[in-house]
Amino acid sequence: MRLNFTVFCLLLAVVAWARPINDGNKLFAAGDFEGALKKYMEAREAEPANPMLFYNIGTCQYKLGNFEEAKKELESAMRMPDKKLASKAAYNLANTHFRIGEKSSEGSERIAAWRESVGYLKKAIDLDNSFENAKKNVEIVQRKLKEELDKQKENKDQNQDQDNDQKQPPLSEKAKEALARALQLSKDGKYAEAKELLENTIAEDETAGQLGSYVQRIDDVIEIKAGRKPKAKIDASNTDNDLEVI
C-alpha cells in the first residue's frame, strides 16, 4: 500500500520531533537531568507551544534546583487538555512552591509559598481525585504551614510581651514574694498551687501582670504531666514522590 506523500512527510516530522523527547526521557530516568533538559529544549525548537514540553522542561528544572525556572514552565504546562496530565503539572508546581518556601529565610515568604503549594495540590486533586501522593502532600504542607504560622504568632506575642514588660512598673514586694513562693511550689511538684497563687496575685496586684508568662509555663507543665505529647516531627521526604516526565 502506497502512502500519500503529504502523510509520509507528516510522519517523518513526528518521528524527528519525538526522538529528542524519548531520548530526554531516558536520560531523565537515568538521573542525567542536564542531558534530559538539553534534549527537551531541542524538541521545543519544533514544537515551541507544546505543553508536554513545558511539563518535562519544568520537571527537569525542578530536579536541577532551578525552582523559579521550573515554576514558569509548569504554569504553562497546566494548559494540557488531558486532566490527568494537567493534574501532574499542578502537583509538580505545588512541589516547586514548597521547595521555594523551604529555601526562604523569611517567615512571611515561607507562608506565602506554602499557601501556594497547598492551592496547587488541591487543584491536582480536583483534576484527578485518585492522586494519592497529592492527598498525602496536602497534609504534609498544611502541617508545615500551620507550624510556621504558629511560630510567627509566638514570636509576635513574645515581642509584645517584651514591650509590655518594659512599660510595666517593677514588681511590688508582695508580687516578688508570690513569685518566689510559686517557684518553690513548682520545684516541689505542686504546680496547681503555684499557678493559683500567681493568678490570684495578678488579679490583686497591678504590678504583677508580667507574671503571666510564669503562669503559662506552669500550665504547660501541668498539661505535659497530664499526658500531652509533642507533635511528631514532620517527614517531608514524600513531597518528591511521583515527580516524573511524560
In short:
The chain has 246 residues and is an all-alpha fold. 75% of the residues lie in helices and 0% in strands.
Give a verbal description of the structure:
By secondary structure, this protein is mainly alpha-helical. It has helices spanning 5-29, 33-46, 51-63, 67-77, 83-103, 107-127, 132-167, 173-187, 191-204, 212-225. The protein contains 10 helices and no strands. Helix 9 runs antiparallel to helix 10 (212-225).
Rounded mean pLDDT score: 82
Distance between the terminal alpha carbons, to the nearest Å? 33 Å
Structural class given helices, strands, pairing? mainly alpha
Q: Let me know the number of strands.
A: 0
Strand content: under 5%
Low-confidence stretches: 1-17
Give a quick account of the main beta sheet: strands, pairing sense, barrel closure.
none
Rg value? 29 Å
Helix content: over 70%
| SSE series | HHHHHHHHHH
Tally of DSSP helical segments: 10
User: Tell me, what's the shape?
Assistant: elongated
What is the topological layout?
Blueprint: H1 5-29, H2 33-46, H3 51-63, H4 67-77, H5 83-103, H6 107-127, H7 132-167, H8 173-187, H9 191-204, H10 212-225
Helix pairs in contact: 1-2, 2-3, 3-4, 3-5, 4-5, 5-6, 6-7, 8-9, 9-10
